[in-house]
UniProtKB/TrEMBL annotation:
<feature type="binding site">
    <location>
        <position position="266"/>
    </location>
    <ligand>
        <name>Mg(2+) 1</name>
    </ligand>
</feature>
<feature type="binding site">
    <location>
        <position position="294"/>
    </location>
    <ligand>
        <name>Mg(2+) 1</name>
    </ligand>
</feature>
<dbReference type="InterPro" id="IPR013022">
    <property type="entry name" value="Xyl_isomerase-like_TIM-brl"/>
</dbReference>
<keyword id="KW-0413">Isomerase</keyword>
<feature type="domain" description="Xylose isomerase-like TIM barrel">
    <location>
        <begin position="122"/>
        <end position="276"/>
    </location>
</feature>
<feature type="binding site">
    <location>
        <position position="305"/>
    </location>
    <ligand>
        <name>Mg(2+) 2</name>
    </ligand>
</feature>
<feature type="binding site">
    <location>
        <position position="269"/>
    </location>
    <ligand>
        <name>Mg(2+) 2</name>
    </ligand>
</feature>
<protein>
    <recommendedName>
        <fullName>Xylose isomerase</fullName>
        <ecNumber>5.3.1.5</ecNumber>
    </recommendedName>
</protein>
<feature type="binding site">
    <location>
        <position position="307"/>
    </location>
    <ligand>
        <name>Mg(2+) 2</name>
    </ligand>
</feature>
<feature type="binding site">
    <location>
        <position position="266"/>
    </location>
    <ligand>
        <name>Mg(2+) 2</name>
    </ligand>
</feature>
<dbReference type="InterPro" id="IPR001998">
    <property type="entry name" value="Xylose_isomerase"/>
</dbReference>
<feature type="active site">
    <location>
        <position position="99"/>
    </location>
</feature>
<dbReference type="GO" id="GO:0000287">
    <property type="term" value="F:magnesium ion binding"/>
</dbReference>
<feature type="active site">
    <location>
        <position position="102"/>
    </location>
</feature>
<feature type="binding site">
    <location>
        <position position="337"/>
    </location>
    <ligand>
        <name>Mg(2+) 1</name>
    </ligand>
</feature>
<dbReference type="GO" id="GO:0042732">
    <property type="term" value="P:D-xylose metabolic process"/>
</dbReference>
<comment type="similarity">
    <text>Belongs to the xylose isomerase family.</text>
</comment>
Length: 439
């Protein structure tokens, strides 16, 4: 099947058996007064959708991502650009995200890379206008090329740091040029394999230096969007510095960068760090750092970043619950940092995968709104901490209590036993009831 043969994907409802239709994602449907489109802010990842061809550690590509014939590398990337917008148009996805090296071929020098980028960026700008699409965020790929073997900002070689800085500058320029509402730093190879050869202190200081330079440059050149760090604990390096939301926030605070950065939370990165997706979102939210989401899922039986399209509705529901609690997205959105499996190799599979992901998030949103409307979970949590609303609890949270006053209070009390049940099983069954309702 060729791209032009794929129809526009439309909402047909849960009863439809047409694979090329949405069963739950109904863009205009209002949830709490806001359309599904506005709540979910779906974005297409350029790298997985237009570039990844199924290559893995044990085998070559299985997918044809050339999107037509091409005489030159530039023609190939122009084909990809046209295909990108046709895919977004057919899926009714409003946003996209890219790395500099996804959209244009590398040149022999950074100057040549930049020239290639300029040509493609003007094409993207035209296509964005024509199709009415927006850039959610841009980023620089400072991890693929062999020069980044020791990292980019954390490389032991200053020339590599300089090269990465040049790449980041250009990626910021094109993000601004295309009106992007965000700029992401995922720490590619910013980590280490062994402390035996690593000056961790210098590497972390340097990583902060590059981020500071990026913020200063972008703000001076009119970038008003959000900067994000995307935590990930491992892969490609054994120990990535941006391990998880907590580690990233501590890093940002140490270097005084916390006002400039929010977090881009990825589901599969959360689980690699030994957390749930919702944990990372909650951690970001309560620290005022919730920014954007890389929507995907991992495989609990595999220990790496499988970047699967999200279909686990428990996960999408608890994710959207956090998004609703955060008051929704501002500059961020739901970027499908996800790829079809190597054996799902047809062009149609791209669409089936996105439909699966978008429908799973539409369900997640519907369920999250139901959880809020039902109120039992919120009420349970409120009640669970009710002891802090009055008496000694209120003294503790208001700052009135001291170690001495609490000691006097405890001496008067005698033995203390827990009075309340955590009721985990009950709450899980409430969630099931909300999710599945009547059959
Ligand atoms: C890698 C990953 C990246 C970032 C952008 O695991 O998630 O694609 O999202 O660099
Ligand atoms: Co990602």
């Amino acid at each position: 099947m060729e791209l032009k043969q794929i129809p526009k994907i439309r909402y047909e409802g849960p009863g439809s058996k047409n694979p090329l239709s949405f069963k739950y994602y109904d863009a205009g449907r209002l949830i709490n007064g806001k359309s599904m489109r506005e709540h979910l802010k779906f974005a297409m990842s350029y790298w997985h959708t237009l570039c990844a061809d199924g290559t893995d550690m044990f085998g070559r590509g299985t997918m044809d991502k050339s999107f037509g014939t091409a005489e030159s590398a530039m023609d190939l990337y122009k084909n990809k650009a046209h295909a990108a917008f046709e895919i977004m148009d057919k899926l009714d996805i409003d946003y996209f995200c890219f790395h500099d090296r996804d959209i244009a071929p590398e040149g022999a020098t950074i100057g040549a890379c930049n020239e290639n980028l300029d040509e493609i960026v003007s094409l993207l700008k035209e296509l964005m206008r024509q199709y009415d699409k927006k850039l959610l965020w841009g980023t620089a790929n400072c991890f693929n090329h062999p020069r980044y073997a020791h990292g980019a900002a954390t490389s032991c070689e200053a020339d590599v740091f300089a090269y990465a800085a040049a790449q980041v500058k250009k990626a910021i320029d094109i993000t601004i040029e295309l009106g992007g509402s965000g700029y992401v730093f995922w720490g590619g190879r910013e980590g280490y394999e062994t402390l035996l050869n690593t000056n961790m202190e210098l590497e972390l200081d340097n990583m902060a230096r590059l981020l500071r330079m990026a913020v200063e440059y972008a703000r001076a050149h009119g970038f008003t969007g959000d900067f994000y760090i995307e935590p990930k604990p491992k892969e490609p390096t054994k120990h990535q510095y941006d391990f998880d939301a907590a580690a990233v926030l501590a890093f940002l605070r140490k270097y005084g960068l916390d006002k400039d950065f929010k977090l881009n939370i990825e589901a599969n990165h959360a689980t690699l760090a030994g957390h749930t997706f919702a944990h990372e979102l909650r951690y970001a939210r309560i620290n005022g750092a919730f920014g954007s989401i890389d929507a995907n899922q991992g495989d609990m039986l595999l220990g790496w970043d499988t970047d699967q399209f999200p279909t686990n509705v428990y996960e999408t529901a608890l994710c959207m619950y956090e998004v609703l609690k955060a008051g929704g997205f501002t500059n961020g959105g739901l970027n499908f940092d996800a790829k079809a499996r190597r054996a799902s190799m047809t062009l149609e599979d791209i669409f089936l995968s996105y439909i699966a992901g978008m429908d799973s998030f539409a369900l997640g949103l519907l369920i999250a709104a139901k959880i809020e409307a039902d109120g039992r979970l919120d009420e349970f949590v409120r009640e669970r901490y009710a002891s802090y609303k009055s008496g000694i609890g209120l003294d503790i949270v208001s700052g009135k209590a001291t170690l001495e006053s609490l000691s006097e209070y405890a001496l008067r009390m005698g033995e203390v036993k827990p009075l309340t049940s955590g009721k985990q099983e009950y709450l899980e069954s409430v969630l099931n009831q909300i999710m599945f309702g009547n059959f």
